[in-house]
Amino acid sequence: xxxxxxxxGRYGGxxxxxxxxxxxxxxxxESSVDKLLPRIVRFRWIIPANSEIRVRLxxxxxxxxxxxxxxxxxxxxxxxxxxxxxxxxxxxxxxxREPRTVFPNRQKTRKPNEIVHKKFILSTEQYDFGPLxxxxxxxxxRSGTYQTNVETLTIDNTSPMDVEALFCFLYEVEPxxxxxxxxxxxxxxxxxxxxx
Length: 196
Hints:
Layout: E1 2-8, H1 32-36, E2 44-45, E3 65-75, E4 81-90, H2 99-102, E5 106-107, E6 119-121, E7 126-128, H3 138-143, E8 155-156, E9 163-166, E10 186-189, E11 194-195
Parallel strand pairs: 5-6
Antiparallel strand pairs: 1-2, 1-3, 3-4, 6-7, 8-11, 9-10
């Protein structure tokens, strides 16, 4: 006869919301997540010789974080205990927001009346192209002929899953009046991948 129990673990102050205690009672108050999962009602199994049973282990969380649990199995009549460490991660696709990763040129602060060229100012969290000559051909700017009018940003996927990134400006304007352009406007990145 084999008996299985579950012991709750903690990581970063978070605990799995689907934790069940060894007496078959839910470890937390009932929620919509709990209603989706069958309650554990059986903790002992008789396993015939040279055979097996399958125990389904599920992970579901309504909170972002990393959750650790330990499932413990014990053979009745012996003192042998078998532990299985379980870890589940619940997260969202994300890209790096670190200026040192995104922008090739950075500056901590800008002095009064200082003119900067193509730098991200860390203190104000703003990117400044600096003064540019008016009247340049828009098609040549888009093709990269005038590098003073173009900056290359690095997009880094910091999540453990693929990212479909869509880029846009906070305030949309008519294309004929637009002063800023993005190319490309969308990007697919695998986990840990970086693109410019």
